[in-house]
Predict the structure.
Amino acid sequence: MGQRKASKDGDRKVGRRALLIGGAAAAAGTAVLARDELARLWWRTPGVEKPRKDGEVDFAGARWVAASEANWRRADRPDDFGIDMVIVHVTQGSFDSAVKAFQDPGHKAATHYIVRQDGHVAQMIRELDVAYHAGNRDYNERSVGIEHEGFVDRPQDLTEEMYEASARLTARICARYDIPVDREHIIGHVEVPGTDHTDPGPHWDWDKYMRLVKRARTAPA
């Protein structure tokens, strides 16, 4: 009986200690989660605006041309949505027509960047925000979208200057968010689940593009 009582008391003591330790750990974990949640959501509080500079770009070689606010959603990436993908598009039109479309609030779509055939890069949406470009909410939230001037059935539209400029841009995006430089993380719009788009089309040279991105990724910034 005495041995059984000692065992019972011992179990009770261990149970109390475990409860105290577990409770403290749970409280600490809850505090961390609450802090992280506040860090993500503080800017959504009425009257609070996340600090931004007008005309600021994420890629040093880009020129800022703002898209309509109807074509993207304000966010705090990668804190609220992790970025692990780059999605390649082709405009099916000229550079100017793409800019005009993305500035039209009725268009309801835009990419973060447009690359012109001469290699000029325009940024229309900050990378920290969610652009409506993939036709899939999950992919929009986790990706950066890049348009390329041209038509999918015109291989002559895919110029060397455009490939080179786009590869440098994609390489910097991958470096910034630690995205692997492979075809699982750098994809075409046609590869997004549920999309009805075919871009960047059959003439987009993925082997060359990935080679250029890898070379740019290892080059000095």
Observations:
- The beta strands are 62-64, 72-73, 85-88, 113-115, 121-123, 130-131, 143-148, 186-188.
- Helices lie at 2-41, 95-102, 137-142, 160-177, 206-218.
